[in-house]
TrEMBL record:
Residue ranges constituting the 4Fe-4S ferredoxin-type domain according to the UniProt record: 168-199, 203-232
Record keywords, A-Z: 4Fe-4S, Iron, Iron-sulfur, Metal-binding
Keyword flag Metal-binding: yes
Record protein name field: Uncharacterized protein isoform X4
Top-rank lineage group of the source organism: Eukaryota
Keyword Aminoacyl-tRNA synthetase: no
Pfam families xrefs: LdpA_C, LdpA_Fe-S-bd
Gene behind this protein: LOC113738043
GO molecular function: 4 iron, 4 sulfur cluster binding; metal ion binding
Length: 398
């Protein structure tokens, strides 16, 4: 997934108690070091999970025994104390955001991810702007805080002002699929969102909408061209109601950076609900020479009703879905231009879109990783967890 995703790709596979224990052990064994790069870091990489969870996943919330084991594990291992607020993490350059995915809506997985990463110390959990998803995030946070009295991360909801790659779902009619199809779509799906079973009457199954986050990998591999992408725009009225809840702290608006009218319509539609927030983030792709002008236009739209801090998410290579070195080059190049650009509007900068395990090395080569002279640039704590965390969820835990 971002592998779509957004920055450091973290995988999380909660298939059984063993995986959960390994996941927490991986975080706790290293203390705070892999989670917080430190004050010297300047650019932020969004942590993404790619969801490759199997159907026999662990639902932590319903397993008293499982929670007991987690609590026992933490008691034995210890967990680093986190005293800084999310706002202070932004200022110090050690902010970490867990991306559950703008379109990922599997509430059981989202709850489990929120539990684990709250214990890990993330500053923010970014999720779909859907009431049941937000509730699942809150349940995971509260379950974590019942295990250990850790500070609460901010909850962010993601919305879009127009068609956007992050806001789409794959769709096909399984009745149209030939019985002898090898189903490459099912094989390449990183979220296990496509299930198919051959029966005498035809293929049964299809796309599991709550698990599909719109990566698009299935579309080009279909040998019969039967899969299509369905795009959608989050309803502004529903978003307003979410923002008025006392458990949503931030919003991320995805925009293409080229048509300010759609952004303005959404912003005006949000109205006074913005006053309930601690952070407003705008995610936009690189529009080259138009970038600074586009950012300035968007900021001028927000400024009269912006009463909290703001952040620009630099989506270098939206939904790139690649873990190779090449995927991160565009994101780093985007950041390089913005860091030195004059006339850039107020706001923290966060690197996303194509970021992965190679991003930090790339930033070091450009001397951005250790830069301390640029106060408004974040470098998210690089969540470095290997096999246990292999889950797109955004997996988009982007």
């Amino acid at each position: 997934m971002e592998n779509d995703k957004g920055a450091a790709t973290v995988i999380c596979n909660f298939r059984d108690q063993k995986y959960l224990k390994e996941t927490l052990s991986s975080f706790l064994r290293h203390g705070s070091a892999p989670l917080r790069f430190g004050m010297a870091l300047s650019l932020s990489c969004c942590a993404s999970l790619q969801s490759s969870i199997q159907s026999a996943q662990l639902n932590i919330s319903s397993k008293r025994e499982g929670l007991g084991q987690v609590k026992s594990l933490i008691a034995r291992t210890g967990i680093p104390s986190i005293t800084t607020s999310p706002h202070e993490s932004l200022q110090k350059g050690n902010w970490v955001k867990l991306i559950c995915g703008a379109s990922f809506e599997d509430v059981a997985d989202i709850r489990n991810l929120s539990l684990v990463y709250t214990l890990a110390g993330v500053d923010c959990i970014d999720c779909a702007a859907e009431a049941s998803v937000v509730s699942a995030v809150n349940e995971g946070i509260e379950a974590a805080r019942a295990i250990f009295p850790i500070r609460r991360p901010w909850i962010m909801v993601s919305v879009n002002d127009n068609e956007d790659l992050h806001f789409r779902k794959a769709e096909f009619d399984p009745d149209d699929c030939p019985l002898d199809c090898s189903r490459p779509c099912e094989i390449v799906c990183p979220a296990n969102a496509i299930l198919g079973e051959s029966t005498p009457s035809g293929l049964k199954g299809g796309v599991l909408a709550d698990r599909c986050y719109g990566c698009g990998r299935c579309i080009p591999v279909c040998p019969f061209d039967r899969i299509r992408a369905i795009t959608y725009i989050r309803d502004v009225t529903t978003t307003v109601e979410l923002l008025k809840r006392d458990d949503v702290d931030a919003i991320e608006i995805h925009t293409n950076g080229r048509q300010a009218s759609a952004f303005e319509e959404l912003w005006n539609g949000l109205g006074d609900s913005i006053n309930h927030l601690r952070l407003v983030a705008v995610s936009m792709p690189d529009v080259k020479d138009l970038t600074i002008a586009a950012m300035s236009t968007l900021y001028s739209i927000m400024e009269p009703n912006l009463h909290c801090i703001n952040l620009w998410q630099l989506d270098g290579r939206p939904m790139s879905g690649d873990i190779g070195r090449g995927a991160t080059r565009e994101a780093i190049a985007f950041a390089l231009r913005l860091v030195s650009a004059s006339g850039r509007p107020k706001g923290f900068l966060q690197l996303a879109g194509g970021t992965n395990a190679h991003t930090v090395d790339g930033l070091k080569r450009e001397r951005l990783f250790q830069t301390t002279t640029i106060p408004e640039i974040l470098l998210q704590r690089y969540l470095k967890v290997k096999r246990c965390l292999q889950y797109h969820l955004v997996h988009k835990m982007l």
